[in-house]
Design the sequence.
């Protein structure tokens, strides 16, 4: 993968698990199924004769447009997952993500207050977790989704130890 213009030079990015695509697809399916169903209700009501407004073309057009938008997002999910990465350096952790709007976040170990791991039902079923970093600034709370559970546990311990060492001034 070509290096983004905002990536620091000489960084080897570690990627999240490809299984994370499945987690994102399940989230996509649930969210879009509900959205398209709700937006299709006016079409059902118009066809049943319960409503005279909106016009039929609008009752068809809105859910159709949202379905096309949802399909576009579906196509982007694998690429979005491949764009997520992290790198451990001596003094900080780098986290990157984004396709169109790329972001590289630098979290100094000395600023970390605590490191949290969470896993929803789909993530647990696939052996994945999300690592969350909490700092003194609410704007820098960062996370790395889609980590294998073992890597998440290792990273949590590693980051906690480095954070404590930096806070102690070692």
Sequence:
């Amino acid at each position: 993968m070509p290096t983004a213009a905002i990536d620091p030079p000489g960084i080897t990015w570690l990627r999240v698990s490809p299984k994370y695509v499945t987690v994102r697809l399940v989230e996509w399916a649930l969210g879009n199924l509900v959205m398209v169903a709700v937006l299709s209700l006016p079409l059902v009501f118009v066809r049943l004769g319960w409503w005279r407004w909106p016009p039929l073309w609008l009752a068809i057009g809105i859910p159709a447009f949202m379905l096309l938008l949802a399909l576009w997002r579906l196509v982007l999910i694998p690429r979005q997952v491949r764009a997520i990465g992290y790198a451990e350096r001596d003094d900080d952790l780098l986290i990157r993500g984004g396709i169109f709007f790329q972001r590289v976040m630098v979290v100094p170990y000395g600023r970390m207050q605590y490191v949290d791991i969470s896993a929803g039902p789909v993530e647990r079923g696939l052996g994945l977790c999300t690592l969350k970093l909490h700092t003194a600034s609410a704007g820098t709370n960062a996370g790395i989704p889609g980590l294998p559970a073992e890597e998440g546990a290792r990273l949590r311990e590693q980051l906690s130890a480095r954070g404590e060492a930096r806070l102690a001034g070692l």
User: Anything to note?
Assistant: The domain at 85-167 is CATH 2.30.29 (PH-domain like).
